[in-house]
């Protein structure tokens, strides 16, 4: 084999792992909390930003726009994450491709106006950190004064990376 060809092959082999590297998810030290402390996305990957997703109607018999129509925080979280999962699948992605999540929670009147973080986590852990889907995004969760409809307690936006 001519030296220039051999040199080109060696250089390509040395550079290839850089371009083939995967997303790196850093665990929270000393914790089993189901989020990543940080996520690194290598150069050359495509990021997909999903707009905020709000809950679907859970009870069509309830008054339109009411809390009863959408359910409690857990119900709304499951509805929102199910919608996100469906949207990602339609784009050839999966929940395991999510690298960043921002969660907006409205205070639940049944909880004295405080966000129901436990209810959110009960829904969230059905989608992330499971045996079937163990990858964890970095995540922020915050209480907000209100969302677009009076009955919404949950809105979630995500960023995914195309593998």
Can you walk through the features of this model?
The structure is a single chain. This protein has one domain: 2-Layer Sandwich (60s Ribosomal Protein L30, Chain: A), CATH 3.30.1330. 27% of the residues are buried. The longest helix is centred in the first third of the chain and has 18 residues. It is built from 4 helices and 6 strands. α4 links the parallel β4 and β5. The protein is 29% helix and 26% strand. It is globular and about 45 Å long. By secondary structure, it is of the alpha+beta class. The two termini are 35 Å apart. α3 packs parallel to α4. It has a 4-stranded mixed beta sheet. A two-stranded antiparallel sheet has the order 1-2.
In short:
The chain has 163 residues and is an alpha+beta fold. The protein has helices at 3-20, 67-70, 73-90, 117-124; strands spanning 24-27, 36-40, 46-53, 98-106, 138-144, 154-162. The chain has 4 helices and 6 strands.
Average the pLDDT over all residues and give the rounded result.
Answer: 90
Question: Looking at CATH, which topology would you report?
Answer: 60s Ribosomal Protein L30, Chain: A
CATH class: Alpha Beta
- Report the end-to-end length measured between terminal Cα atoms: 35 Å
Number of domains: 1
- Quick one: biggest sheet? 4 strands, mixed
Helix content: 25-40%
Strand order of the largest sheet: 3-6-4-5
Tell me the number of helical segments per DSSP (H or I, 4 or more residues long).
Answer: 4
Radius of gyration in whole Å, from Cα? 20 Å
- Helix/strand-derived class? alpha+beta
Please give the number of β-strands: 6
- Low-pLDDT stretches are 6-21
H-E order: HEEEHHEHEE
Shape: globular
């Amino acid at each position: 084999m001519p030296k220039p060809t051999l040199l080109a092959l060696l250089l390509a082999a040395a550079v290839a792992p850089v371009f083939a590297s995967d997303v790196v998810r850093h665990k929270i030290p000393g914790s089993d909390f189901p989020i990543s402390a940080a996520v690194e996305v290598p150069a050359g990957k495509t990021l997909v930003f999903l707009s905020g997703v709000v809950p679907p109607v859970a009870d069509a018999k309830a008054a339109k726009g009411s809390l009863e129509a959408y359910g409690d925080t857990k119900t709304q979280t499951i509805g929102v994450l199910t919608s996100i999962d469906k949207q990602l699948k339609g784009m050839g992605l999966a929940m395991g491709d999510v690298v960043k999540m921002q969660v907006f929670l409205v205070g639940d009147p049944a909880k004295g106006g405080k966000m129901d973080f436990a209810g959110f986590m009960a829904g969230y852990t059905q989608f992330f950190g499971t045996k079937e889907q163990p990858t964890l995004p970095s995540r922020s969760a915050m209480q907000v004064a209100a969302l677009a409809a009076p009955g919404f307690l949950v809105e979630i936006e995500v960023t995914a990376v195309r593998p």
